[in-house]
Fold this sequence. Notes:
Blueprint: E1 2-10, E2 13-22, E3 31-34, E4 38-41, E5 47-50, E6 53-57, E7 62-70, E8 80-83, H1 84-87, E9 90-93, E10 98-99, E11 102-106, E12 111-119
Amino acid sequence: MLKKSLWLILPAVVLCVALVPRPVHGNNAAVVINGTGCNMLDGDGNGVFTDISHAVETSSGRGVFNCRVTTTPASGGGAVHWNYANTGLQCADTDGDLTNEWQETVSASGQAQLSCHFNE
């Protein structure tokens, strides 16, 4: 199996990384990987690292990558929602596949969750 990485791209800075083995096509099973490294955004948009992650990729190339971390909440208070529309960041893998389909929420208490969706 080939290894595949998921990235949340910021100009000149990589914000999200996870290693996910690519399933052999023709195999109907999904590949599930837990505990890979992930860099996310905190409540103020700064990078923060976690190894609490869960990735799934099907043999058809569809995949989802999730990670979570307790981090610094937004300095202005309240919850913050990050996505392609308000950051201009994309999720990308090492094959060059890009997606705008991602979102991250940082709660007022600093609980952050990121989800990135791929559909090859």
